Amino acid sequence: MKQIILARRYAKALFAICKEENKYDEYNEALQGLNGLFSSDSGVEDALTNPLYPIDVREKVMEGIVKSMGVDKVMGNFLNLLVEKKRADVLPDIAEEFQIMVDEEKNISHGSVVSAVELSSDLQKKVQQTLEKLTGKTVELTTSVDPSIIGGIIAKVGDLELDGSIRTQLASLKDSIKGRE
Questions:
Q1: Are residues 100 and 125 in the same domain?
Q2: Domain span at 132
Q3: Which of 68, 71, 103, 117 is exposed most, by the fewest CB atoms within 10 A?
């Protein structure tokens, strides 16, 4: 279960510290790496969150992870604090919230483009430039293919959704024809 409010508090505290020291990328890389470790190896998550293990054992596991990651003292203390306060299970959510804060600070938005066929890199670049003009932010796009939209594209960035698919155009045409009856 996601604990967004709690994760946001921890992420905000860590973000305030790294903002002073201008270490966004370093801290974000460490959090995302640890988040990847959590998702790829359930044994790591279990070793840090299972209440059957004594707290001192869980702290030693985190100390080993911190040492192997080679993070600075502040980040190491933050990660150790999560284990000490029995909040290591919130780490994936903290990483997600921290990523959002870093992207906001760097004026980056993440978007997606769905098309009926694979888009050429030239067309992807044009779509990206158009979305950047509309949002006023740097846009990082992910693309996917969905043949059910028949043609056109559906672009989403944050709250902005542009639907130029043939499927949607046909549905609106159908609705307008029904409205005349």
A1: no
A2: 107-180
A3: 68
Model confidence pLDDT, tens digit, residues 56-93: 999 999 999 999 999 999 999 999 999 999 999 999 99
CATH number at residue 171: 3.40.30
Pair of tokens at residue 77: 């203390």
CA distance 92 to 48: 13
Both 14 and 99 in one domain: the answer is yes
**% helix / strand / coil in the chain, to the nearest 5?**
65, 15, 20
Q: What is the pTM of this model?
A: 0.79
The length of the chain is 181
Number of structural domains in the chain: 2
147 secondary structure, DSSP code:
G
Q: In degrees rounded to 5, what are phi and psi of residue 127?
A: -65, -45
Span 21-66, pLDDT tens digits = 889 899 999 999 999 988 888 788 999 999 999 999 999 999 999 9
Residue given tokens 């999560």 in the structure block:
82
Q: Are residues 115 and 100 in the same domain?
A: no
For the record, the structure tokens of 71 come out as 């993070």
